[in-house]
Amino acid sequence: MRKYLRQAGICLVVAVALPAGAAIAKPEGSSPVPSVDAVGIWTHRDVGSASTPPMGWNSWNAFGTAITEAKVIGSAEVIRDSGLAEAGFRSINIDDGWWRKRRLNDGRMQVRTNLFPSAAVGGAEETSLRPFTDRLHAMGLRAGIYTDIGRNACSQAWSPDNPNLPEGTVAEREVGLHGHVEQDLALYFGDWNFDYAKVDACGIAHYAATRPNVVDHTFRELPPLVVDADANRSDIPAVQGLYAQVRDTLRRIRPKGDFVLSLCNWGSANVRAWGKDFGTMWRTSNDIDPSWGRMLHNFDSVATRELYAGPGHWNDPDMLEIGNGPFDADHPVEARAHMSLWAIAAAPLIIGTDLTKAAPQTIATLNNREVIAVDQDPAGNQGVIAYTDDEREIVVKTLAVRGVKAVALINRTAEPTEVTLTAAHLKFAANRPIMLRDLWAHADLGDLGGERTFKLAPHETMMLTAKGAPQLASGFFLSEMPGRINVAVDGIPALEPDPVIHRMIDPYHAGTTWDGNRPAYAGWGGPRADATPYDQSLRIAGTAYRSGLGVLANSRLEVKADGAFSRFVARVGVDDSTRGKRAAVRFEVYGDGKRLAMSPPLRFAHPAVEISAPITGVRVIELVVRQLGSAEGNVVASWAEARVE
Q1: Contact at 8 Å (CB) between 483 and 310?
Q2: How far is the CA of 406 from the CAs of 116, 347, 431, 520, in angstroms?
């Protein structure tokens, strides 16, 4: 079954479908043409509670639908007894396979009691997962459940011969949220007391009228809202409306926000841009599998989205495969690299292996507290790419303690290589000591000495912390603090697939008889830290800048200042890489809704202009780039050396 699901590129965590003929609710703040006008407030509102990336375990990568209560509890006991729970891995999430059917007389979901025997409670309920969640809670853990946004689930779409599929009539086998949003979520988060929901999206993607299992009346048609790898043909407003229903329902059921809502529509429908407004975390790619190429692919789907994540809202490159295949105990270099990349990206850490069979080395890799501390750092900054080519990368993550950063030195290849780390990569003063620590060796490495070259084994990622004197005597470059930035309006006029994500050999289309893995995920052109939206170095009128924010015209970024700074400064202009050379732009800086500074109209090849504004007491800074006139292409603009002091 797992093969078929992965081949389909399936996974969406928390979504909902509407009854036939029902209207799609527009998401909050939706507008056909987003306005860049300042609003004076931080507009992002967290969904649920996850000030740091969620951590836990999920049954899917280990068991698929061959899930049992005993298997889940077995891994939960290992988490409790091994120290993994103490390290933060506390959410135990059951995936597809738990459900038996929907009871027709009242619509209540019924559990497959041959797999979850404690659910056989009898009485009017007949079955309940409350004994299961009570047991997990008594162990000091949390509980997560799986559902689908449509009528039917992914296993039903792709594994018709699976023995653990829902059973009964067509209506009884409709176990997804479609038409049952309030009822199901009240059951899962109320009666059954779950804490976390993952909702797949096959129900709104793979039940078209032409599908064989719809043609033969095994399932009812639900016209697709999501078209795999095609954002232009997906109905994005409708998908957002469904997510909004789930989000708003959970907020009513859990008014304290004590839940995690994980959106998992495989990076489709441009979710990488809007997932932050509808879920706690959102899948940015197709399902991971235990292969080096797929791991790189999933990492790349978040690596350039640093401005879209932050405390309470997280890019999700999918679960950890540590313990499986080429990330098992016989492949410690690859396992450590996998863990390092997820940590530097501030990604959710969800274990996906059978821990009852895990080797001590696997447990030790997962339980590296120094690496976990990087992932869980309270500043919530995702790492920013400081150097990149197709074979090597340096990613730097600013930590909560001033003058401390985490660094990942990445060898993406199967050959040894060298990587030179410099003070400039770290935005530290080169004439002051920069003390390094190796988080896998648990060893201090001494002073960087301005720069140092490291030899990396094939597939190795070195994970370091660096302590030094920041280049800025006070304050920060904005690109150092992506967790304080909200992309309110990205300025993208038309969706384009992202071409910089690694295109691995697809394990289920390994041959070359098809046209290959082409760029699939929308979002190309979104704002970036220390790069342009199209992955170029920041450069204005021939002058290069190592720090700054690259944006498109007609964009608006919100910066959470919280009254902690006195001045905003940047050098601004049309970037040399712009696609549109004809139109002028104007840069505007707002503080709590009041315009504080504005540049003159600037055009391509015009030298950078300094813009500064007093921000004492300002809680929210808004950075607006307004296009003046038409252009023959998208205008790329740079907030070079943008900083708060």
Answers
A1: yes
A2: 43, 14, 20, 30
pTM (two decimals)? 0.95
Q: Estimate the crossing angle of helix 69-82 against helix 130-138, to 10 degrees.
A: 10
DSSP run (H or E) holding 197:
strand 196-200
Specify whether the CB–CB gap between 626 and 38 falls below 8 A: no
Give tens-digit pLDDT for 532-586.
Answer: 999 999 999 999 999 999 999 999 999 999 999 999 999 999 999 999 999 999 9
Contacts of 128 (CB under 8 A, 6+ apart): 111, 119, 121, 191, 192
Beta bridge partners of 93: 58, 144
Instruction: Kindly provide the residue ranges of all beta strands, DSSP E only, lying in 332-489, ordered along the sequence.
Output: 349-351, 384-388, 392-398, 404-411, 417-422, 435-438, 443-447, 451-456, 461-467, 476-477, 485-489
Sheet with 620-628, edge to edge strand ranges:
485-489, 555-560, 620-628, 584-591, 594-598
CA-based R_g, the chain, Å? 24
Residue 371: CB partners within 8 Å, gap ≥ 6? 339, 340, 343, 439, 440, 463
Crossing angle for the helix pair 292-303 and 332-344, to the nearest 10 degrees: 10
Q: Across the chain, how many H-helices and E-strands are there?
A: 15, 33
